[in-house]
Amino acid sequence: MSEHFIDLGGRRYRFDDLGALMAAASPRRSGDELAGIAAASAEARAIAQMALAELPLATFLEEPLIPYEDDEVTRLILDRHDRDAFAPVAGFSVGEFRNWLLSERADATSLARLAPGLTPEMVAAVSKLMRVQDLVLVGRKCEVVTRFRNTLGLPGRLSTRLQPNHPTDDAAGIAASILDGLLYASGDAVIGINPATDNTGTVVTLLKMLDEIIARYEIPTQSCVLTHVTTAIEAIERGAPTDLVFQSIAGTEAANRGFGIDLALLREGREAALSLGRGTVGDNVMYFETGQGSALSADAHHGLDQQTLEARAYAVAREFEPLLVNTVVGFIGPEYLFDGKQIIRAGLEDHFCGKLLGVPMGCDICYTNHAEADQDDMDMLLTLLGAAGCNYIMGIPGADDIMLNYQTTSFHDALYLRQLLDRRPAPEFEAWLDASGIYRHGQGIAFANELPARFQHVLADLGEQT
Amino acid sequence: MTQRDDDSVVVANPWQRLRELTDARIGLGRSGGSLTTRAQLAFQLDHARARDAVHMALDTERMMPELDERFPLALRLHSRAADRDEYLRRPDLGRQLSETAAAEIGALNADACDVSICIVDGLSARAIHEQAIPFLEALAPEIESLGLTLGPVALVEQGRVAIGDPIGEALGARMSVVMIGERPGLSSPDSLGLYFTWAPRTGRRDSERNCISNVRPRGLSYRNAAKLLAYLMREAQVLGASGVALKDDSEVDSRLGDGRQGNFLLPPQA
Questions:
Q1: Residues 6 or more apart in contact with residue A270 via CB below 8 angstroms
Q2: Which of A225, A332, A369, A459 to mutate to test the interface with B (most CBs of B within 10 A)?
Q3: Cross-chain residue pair A445–B47, CB shorter than 8 Å
Q4: Does some domain include residue A458?
Q5: Which of A56, A274, A314, B165 is deepest in the core (most CB within 10 A)?
Q6: Sequence-distant contacts of A379-385: CB under 8 A, at least 24 apart
Q7: Which parts of the sequence bind adenosylcob(III)alamin (chain A) (predicted)?
């Protein structure tokens, strides 16, 4: 690895290698400080950003941050790099690339064409030179559309994952949250349960349950039980009606090993889901979650900053043409993102980097109770991500996940964003909401004291059961 | 005083009775598409309580006499994290004993024992204040019926799970139980976690431990948690290991059944 330097005011500032330069140029966050790689001072950070701005983009193709021989994620990134797609920006420095992204020349079409020519390191580098408004504006220019039983990511749309978690996977408890969510117009991205156990039998039962609910109420959406990919494969072998295969992923081979996966296993999971042919309008069958700090927490960070490693996880994601990818931005805790300010910035960086790489980014806008953050911080990130054209957010009753013990966005939060920014649900789901008398765009929730006809029997049946 | 909502503006949800089925915040109603004042204030109160739980100091003055009563020797130890702020930023320091604590426990020259129990504040001292003693009461007969010997109990401030490793190692324990305050949820600021490790020693990986979570009156009962822990202790002695190698097959089937019982969204199975 070669040394990098910049001469400024008669002084030469040195950085041991490209990874050290990237880390020093990263906006301040607790995870990089914990790893001992953050800039030593505010001035050192600003100078590193100047040095990074002068670096040719093509350097990242010549100087891998983790050696090609050591890491299959590096091999994936370099083997898949499309030189023709890269051509329009091949002569740029990182700073010039920022200017180009903000210019009129970068629009939905040129950015989509460019995506296969970009590596995670390039987009991570340019994000470090960007302010929040830049991250929002460029994120907004990108369009990444995916399909399974509906169409996600179209301009002017905002979708939600209905997350009906229950601490003991109780069927009635899960059903209560699903009904609540549907009646608040949530669930077009996916109805996705985090199960309390990784037990295959339980996973199969939950998948059947979700499948029957979607069929009975003719909901144009997909389901997912967020279990390990090996459990999902086993469930498919047992005949479970599986729409999407889920996995948490990270940006290094070693961190992925910590998750008990590698690229071959993800490929196997995708093939298993594709073999079922359950998509009606498309075959994007994978759902990935990521989050800054996962590699450090697995002691697999190779001395790199957590934001660059996060962007590398999106290179893993895009290989498998996912329907959904979201960063779980504030979940991992304050040792990685200390407060609301760090969480907000990280959420916008993640969305920006994912979208530039052609990944259908959503965001779990969230925080834990040991982070210095609150609902006001989440409102800021929510509003900014809405402006940035985020594909989807989470939806949960009252923002309180009683199974995972953290706060994410509520059904009400999505209604706020739809109202404020004129964002519609996915078209197929919007038509279902309209026909069901649940929600009409511009009007909001379309019923008051009487349940929509499709669900009227529910409370009556419940009365008989109890 | 409870904030009242104005019925002419606020829309209540007719499915509020489903709240009997879950602690999730369903059927909150709405004003326009937004949260009602009442729901907003209730959330803020719960968040404030969870925050307070994170920052509440462990009441060692109250806990030590309780432990002295129940164990031949009770140690009061501290991690290398000086205070809560450092604890939150530096998980590595919360896994190590302070120099004083390491010296104190080293000087004991304790006889080898079967089980070392560590009671650690973690992210909720409140969980320790409220659940630790009743759980120990439930655990005592289980340990006795297994015929296991207990080493000194350690009460640890600013600690993480892995701090049980150097403690168990210094005490010559065959296995270690860490009782720790879990990350407080909005609806559960008082949740106790139990981590079981066979042959504790510094450097053990998380995959070498078994975890029993959500021990509290509204979660897993003390008795069931103690029984599950006893099961792990028994099996670990046979296997000579804990963690992923030691599968929890003790659990009775969940209440899930075939996913239809109580699931009012689906018709009962014909």
A1: A245, A285, A286, A320, A321
A2: A369
A3: no
A4: no
A5: A314
A6: A379/A413, A380/A340, A380/A344, A381/A329, A381/A343, A381/A344, A381/A347, A381/A348, A382/A409, A382/A413, A382/A416, A382/A417, A383/A417, A383/A420, A384/A132, A384/A136, A384/A344, A384/A347, A384/A348, A385/A347, A385/A348, A385/A351
A7: 195, 247, 297, 403
Q: Say if B46 is an interface residue toward chain A (CB within 8 Å).
A: yes
The answer to whether residue B8 sits within a structural domain is no
DSSP state of A148: S
**What's the gap in Å between the CA of A105 and the closest CA on chain B?**
38
Please judge whether A167 and B219 are an interchain contact, meaning their C-beta atoms are less than 8 angstroms apart.
yes
Residue A465 confidence class, pLDDT cut points 50, 70, 90: low
Q: Identify whether residues A358 and A382 lie together within a single domain.
A: yes
Domain boundaries, position B70: 59-245
* CATH code: domain of residue A83: 1.10.220.70
The CATH number assigned to the domain holding A158 equals: 3.20.20.70
Residues A418, A435, single domain; the answer is yes
Name chain A contacts of B265, Cβ cutoff 8 Å: 175, 178-179, 213, 216-217, 458
Does a structural domain hold residue B119?
yes
Tokens describing residue A418? 């739809």
Instruction: Name the domain boundary from A141, A171, A201.
Output: A141
Domain of A180, in residue numbers: 146-445
Q: What is the pLDDT of residues A316-374, one digit of tens each?
A: 999 999 999 999 999 989 999 999 999 999 999 999 999 999 999 999 999 999 999 99
| B19 assigned to some structural domain | no
Residues 217-276 of A with CB under 8 A from B: 217
Is residue B17 less than 8 Å (CB to CB) from chain A? yes
CB within 8 Å: B26 and A398: yes
ipTM of the predicted assembly exceeds 0.90: yes
Chain B residues near residue A173 by CB distance under 8 angstroms: 21-22, 24
Count of beta carbons in the 10 Å neighbourhood of residue B2: 7
Are A215 and A104 found together in one domain? no
Residue-wise pLDDT tens digits, B224-249: 899 989 999 999 999 999 987 776 65
Give me the total of CB pairs closer than 8 Å, taking one residue from chain A and one from chain B: 208
Among chain B residues, CA nearest to A439: B33
- What's the number of domains chain A is made of? 2
Cβ distance B186 to A212 less than 8 Å, yes or no, reads no
**Is B22 in Cβ contact with A173 (below 8 Å)?**
yes
Which residues of chain A lie closer than 8 angstroms to B44, CB-CB? 375
Any domain includes A376: yes
In-domain check, residue A271 = yes
Do both A346 and A409 map to the same domain? yes
For residue B71, give the CATH number of its domain. Answer: 3.40.50.11240
Q: Is B9 in the A-facing interface, judged by CB distances under 8 Å?
A: no
- Residue B54, classified by CB atoms within 10 Å of its CB into exposed (0-12), middle (13-18) or buried (19+), is buried
Structural domain contains residue A457: no
Contacts of B50 in chain A (CB under 8 A): 369
pTM, 2 dp: 0.93
